[in-house]
Specification:
heterodimer; A: alpha/beta; Ubiquitin-like (UB roll); Rossmann fold; five-stranded mixed beta sheet; four-stranded parallel beta sheet; 35% helix; 14% strand; B: 159 residues; alpha+beta; Glutaredoxin; 2 domains; four-stranded mixed beta sheet
């Protein structure tokens, strides 16, 4: 993730200086911002345009402080500390100015919180409450914009936008996609996709990180909730659910459980009560993905195929590749993502087992992801003869459906997934964290290539929150060089090395979102560094707790090949489980 | 208005030569956009995209710059652009009357183009000629001390 200037400067000079915060003498590192200094000292400064991991901007004027000897109030997020600086954070002048600025923002905001996606998780609403705003003293023109519904994943409601630019900076600094930027000037300013086109026609990769960054309801996911209710309530439809690996460690958060609480059993019970006919697990098809992708890797190595092989589970990354790195398309695995493999298997193998027409089956997924909505609607994703995955809900939407039906996840008993598409291993569980797909693949590739049992299953070098991780693993006398990148800025770095020949890898894992799927754009808000770390920790606990931890040992997957698919990478597997990509304009 | 055929390669070659001219500049984007807009009167989308690719600048950024400046247009405009200054000194000296006279004479609202494609009416920030407020610009020429009669007179110069 991008470092704030404060952080970067801190690394260069660790000199401490003395400042006075509300009369108290404190030592802080030179180069940090006044805001950071306050945070270090436990002094709360309200903020809106400031966002962890992004460069500070100083635009919202909510974090104002008074600095002795300076005539104007200063935005603390962009003001570096100076020796002897005397700062007042709660004087009357400060409080009144912050409040006036907040009222100005509110004066151009639709005050209909009840109708907003972010009711209850909105920073503007929280501030208005904390500041005790009861009346808005500024009356004037209100800007009106149409809602942009053009994207399959992200809905933009510019009227709720406060122009803090957190989405713009996230898209630029964390993802290097630059799909959106400020357009026009002064009162006419708004956030616009490239060239004023609708978002759906832009380079947006649908990752949804902008939604996590948005303090208000200006950005949200395109909802599939109504369609899923309709499916559940339709007696003619057999509705099958799959839950992504990253969901079980975050779905508890909207119900008040701490981040990183493992809620697998309760989650299954809760969704069963929602009325799905079967509760299955994307982890099953994550194991299947490893068999297919591992086999693809082994074949490429043995037959001198295109290397490095790059993983293909993350639909945000795939669209990014199609726009910006189409020259590396042949390096990307042809494997569909676990979500799509599940859909294809459910509507063929499982539908046949039950003797139902795939047309009468609805496959719903719950994903930590907004790009999955785009992915399931891609033309290529209908191997079963109809759309393989019908609807994809985010973790947030799923939690809301439970709440609508009055189901409190905390109070649920622990229940098991249904058989056979609910059986999975620890290797599938770790898909949810950055480095997980690589680790799962290495576990299987090692054993399949050498025929030996892998003693140490934990590949620590590919774990953790570092942006780019590299490792060399010895497999059957071959030094396999791997790299793992999460967030697209880090991916870009690795891909540029591949392009220039600077780095020679055999296998690369790329996830579009920081931290991997546990930090996906569909996850509960807030999804910050701290919550990401806790969810990652929980993911590895899930892995540890399972009796089987290697994908190729999954009995249900073995059965699937025996009864239905034949050989990994075989003809049938290729038809159902593999896909192709298309080059898109680099607009 | 000139109809632009995008399949015509030489348009992009022309843009390339504009880019070449400013290649050494520290930040060539604005100069390039200005020159494109002089040549084609506005910034057609395919050209903005072409500039973005050539300068390796995100197209969202190009669009941001193009929409920030009131002298740059992203939609086709009339043969002549009438820009009425709406800054405080002109406002005090009757800029609103100037605007309403122009609206009446041209039969369009601000931001619109006459049906014959001749005039586009815009409001703009300070033109820097506050001494002769209220003022307007038509294309590159500035007119001050405006009254309804003078406006009608000036417009005849363009008819």
């Amino acid at each position: 993730m991008a470092k704030t200037t404060g952080e970067m400067e801190k690394k260069e000079t660790q000199n401490m200086i003395t400042i006075y915060l509300d009369g108290k003498e404190v030592e802080v590192p030179q180069g940090v911002s006044v805001l950071e200094a306050c945070q270090m000292e436990g002094i709360h400064i309200p903020t809106l345009c400031y966002f962890e991991g992004l460069s500070p901007w100083g635009g919202c004027r909510i974090c104002l402080v008074e600095i002795e000897g300076q005539p104007n109030l200063a935005a603390s997020c962009v003001t570096p500390v100076r020796e002897g600086m005397k700062i007042r954070t709660t004087s009357k002048k400060v409080r009144e100015a912050r409040r006036a600025n907040l009222e100005l923002l509110l004066s151009n905001h639709p005050l209909d919180c009840q109708l907003c996606d972010r009711n209850g998780s909105c920073e503007l609403q929280d501030l208005a409450y904390q500041f005790g705003v009861r009346e808005i003293h500024f009356k004037g023109e209100r800007k009106t914009y149409e809602v942009d519904n053009s994207s399959p994943s992200v809905k933009r409601d510019a009227e709720r936008c406060i122009l803090c630019g957190r989405c713009v900076r996230t898209c630029r600094e964390v993802q290097t996609v630059c799909a959106i930027d400020y357009a026009n000037r002064s009162f006419e300013t708004f956030i616009s996709p490239s060239l004023g086109l609708p978002l759906g026609e832009s380079v947006c990769v649908n990752c949804g990180q902008c939604i996590l960054a948005c303090p208000t309801g200006a950005l949200s996911e395109v909802s599939h909730v109504d369609q899923v209710w309709d499916a559940i309530e339709d007696p003619e439809k057999f509705v099958v659910l799959q839950t992504a690996p990253a969901i079980r460690v975050s779905i508890g958060e909207p119900f008040g459980l701490p981040p990183g609480t493992i809620s697998t059993g309760k989650m299954v019970a809760a969704f069963r009560r929602l009325g799905f006919d079967r509760i299955f697990d994307t982890n099953f098809s994550a194991d299947l993905t490893i068999i297919e992708e591992g086999t693809e890797f082994i074949n490429r190595v043995k037959q001198g195929g295109k290397l490095p092989l790059i993983t293909s589970c993350s639909p945000g990354w795939i669209k990014f590749m199609e726009h910006f790195y189409p020259d590396l398309m042949d390096n990307v695995s042809t494997c569909k993502s676990p979500q799509q493999m599940f859909g294809a298997v459910a509507k063929t193998y499982y539908a046949q087992k039950l003797g139902i027409d795939p047309q009468d089956m609805i496959v719903v997924s719950i994903m930590p992801c907004t790009a999955k909505k785009f992915e399931c609607q891609r033309e290529e994703m209908s191997a079963s003869g109809c759309q393989d995955v019908d609807f994809s809900l985010t973790t947030r939407e799923a939690a809301r459906m439970l709440k609508e039906k009055g189901i409190d996840l905390k109070e649920m008993p622990d229940e098991d997934f249904d058989d056979p598409l609910g059986i999975s291993t620890g290797a599938a569980a770790v898909f949810g964290a950055t480095g997980g797909v690589m680790e799962a693949a290495l576990r299987s590739v090692y054993e399949l290539l050498t025929g030996k049992t892998l003693e140490k299953l934990d590949f620590y070098p590919v774990r953790g929150i570092e942006g780019v991780k590299e490792a060399t693993v010895e497999v059957d006398g071959m030094e396999v060089k791997v790299a793992v990148a999460h967030s697209l800025s880090n991916a870009r770095q690795v891909l540029d090395w591949v392009r220039s020949g600077e780095a020679q890898y055999h296998f690369i894992e790329i996830m579009a979102c920081p931290g991997g799927c546990i930090g996906g754009g569909g996850q509960p808000i807030p999804t910050n560094l701290e919550n990401r770390m806790k969810r990652i920790e929980a993911i590895y606990q899930v892995d540890q707790s399972l009796p089987l931890r290697k994908s190729h040992e999954n009995p249900a997957v073995k059965q699937l090949y025996k009864e239905f698919l034949g050989e990994p990478n075989g003809e049938k597997a290729h038809h159902l489980l593999h896909t192709h990509y298309l080059a898109r304009e680099k607009m | 208005m000139e109809t632009i055929k995008w399949e015509d390669e030489h348009i992009f070659q022309e843009v390339d030569s504009i880019i070449e001219k400013y290649w050494e500049e520290k930040s060539p984007l604005l100069c390039v956009l200005q020159e494109i807009s002089l040549r084609w009167h506005y910034l057609p989308r395919p050209l903005m995209q072409h500039v973005a690719e050539k300068l390796d600048v995100p197209s969202s950024k190009v669009y941001g710059v193009a929409t920030f400046y009131s002298f740059l247009e992203t939609e086709p405009i009339g043969q002549h652009v009438v820009r009425v200054c709406e800054s405080a000194p002109c406002h005090v000296r009757g800029a609103m009357d100037v605007l309403s006279t122009l609206k009446r004479e041209l039969g369009i609202k601000e931001g619109e183009t006459t049906r014959d494609g001749k005039f586009t009416l815009e409001v703009t920030s300070c033109l820097g000629v506050c001494g002769v407020a209220p003022a307007m610009m038509i294309d590159q020429v500035t007119y001050g001390n405006l009254t309804p009669e003078r406006i009608r007179e000036v417009l005849t110069l363009y008819n």
